[in-house]
Design a protein that fits this description.
Layout lengths: L13 E6 L7 H20 L8 E6 L5 H13 L5 E4 L3 H14 L2 E4 L12 E3 L8 H11 L3 E7 L2 H16 L3 E8 L9 H10 L3 E5 L3 H12 L9 E3 L4 H7 L1 H4 L3 E4 L8 H14 L7 H20 L4 H8 L3 E4 L2 E5 L6 E2 L3 E5 L5 E6 L14
This protein binds acetamide.
Length: 376
């Protein structure tokens, strides 16, 4: 039953939509976002829910297909009467959901690094924008490895846009992009062989990767097949997490670099608890990662705003979300009211032989989200 200002007075569960793939070539990473989401829901429900009502996730599996993701978003909003959707890894799936949440006035909670240059009133962005990872990573690579970059990405919006930005950053710092290649999202180990041959010829100082999904595993395995030395010419990535390293083999991932707001290895009470609960629920060998962490903390931020407003009407909930903060496993994060993005930590890690990232650089405090790179 709805009372004045759309507030609900029932004890029925709060229904929310969840759209992460647990089948197809993106399942490896998206399933960890599903896990982070459900772990947070369990925690909230174990504490009695929100204002006495449990959160009930309505799950659909987009099967790694952006158009299916769009169709499920529509079904969630029209048939399931849901206004809040937690979901999407690839930017192409976010782009498929965007017109639906904008037209039907929903709110998409998007827990993934992406290319920036977007600001929808109907999205809360909780992954890193390029100013929170690419810029620092570029500077670090130039100082420690050299100025000649080779770009390798999966062939869709995010890697192409992200590389456009990285090219500008590299060139502005006096570096050079000596090669740039895109492979299909379903690329297999053998598909990377010609790329490795080209890298052998061009001899860059560093390989910069925005390959995603299962193909990530094949990129690093193919690199190892080619006999390159990661201590000299590492793959530096924005997308390779502990989960992909687990899939490719710890020996294959060792010495490669990733820029991310969160690594499982971080010290601190909030992270230790998160890792402990994640492993208890999903298995001792299952690593956490930046995507699972963002999916986890954004559900808690939603629940806090919901407790204050007692409404899932985006018009009522949104003002409470904007400017709110949370002690996340990565440290304190804030939803930036001006940009709808999240002020996050910037970190660079090097994979060790246990499949974890040793921290080699981090920001002194959370970095303000600047999705349009206005400060650069
Ligand atoms: C991505 O597609 N935003 C990783």
């Amino acid at each position: 039953m709805l009372t004045a200002r759309g507030r609900s007075s029932t004890d029925a569960p709060w229904r929310v939509g969840v759209l992460f793939s647990y089948t197809g070539y993106m399942a490896l990473i998206e399933e960890t976002q599903l896990r982070g989401t459900l772990l947070a829901v369990d925690e909230i429900n174990a504490q009695g829910g929100v204002n006495g009502r449990e959160i009930l996730p309505i799950l659909y599996d987009p099967a790694s297909d952006p158009a299916t993701c769009g169709r499920y978003a529509k079904k969630l909003m029209i048939s399931d009467n849901v206004t809040m959707i937690f979901g999407c890894y690839t930017s192409s799936s976010r782009k498929a959901v965007l017109p639906i949440v904008e037209r039907l006035n929903g709110l998409l909670w998007y827990p993934t690094i992406y290319e920036g240059f977007e600001l929808s009133p109907n999205v809360i962005y909780t992954g890193a924008a390029p100013n929170q990872n690419s810029v620092k990573l570029c500077r670090y690579l130039m100082r420690n490895y050299g100025t000649r970059f080779y770009f390798i990405g999966s062939d869709y919006i995010y890697p192409r846009e992200s590389n456009r930005i990285m090219r500008e950053v590299v060139c502005r710092h006096g570096g050079r992009v000596v090669g740039e290649t895109y492979l299909g999202l379903r690329a297999l180990r053998g598909d990377f062989r010609p790329v490795m041959r080209e890298i052998k010829e061009l001899q860059p100082d560093v390989i910069f990767s925005t390959v995603v999904g299962d193909a990530t595993t094949y990129l690093y395995q193919s690199y190892a097949d080619a006999g390159f030395n990661p201590k000299v010419m590492p793959i530096a990535s924005l997308t390779t997490t502990e989960t992909e390293i687990f899939a490719m083999g710890f020996d294959v991932g060792e010495y490669h670099l990733t820029a991310a707001p969160y690594f499982q290895n971080l010290p601190g009470n909030s992270n230790e608890l998160f890792v402990q609960k994640y492993k208890r629920r999903y298995g001792d060998d299952q690593p956490t990662n930046m995507c699972a962490e963002a999916a986890y903390f954004q559900m808690h931020i939603f629940a806090k705003a919901l407790a204050a407003t007692n409404s899932t009407d985006p018009e009522i909930l949104r003002p409470m979300v904007l400017g709110s903060n949370f002690e996340a496993p990565q440290g304190k994060v804030t939803i930036n009211a001006a940009s709808h993005h999240t002020d996050l930590w910037t970190r660079i890690g090097r994979a060790n032989r246990h499949g974890q990232f040793d921290l080699i650089e981090q920001s002194m405090s959370p970095v303000t989200a600047d999705p349009f790179l206005l400060a650069y």
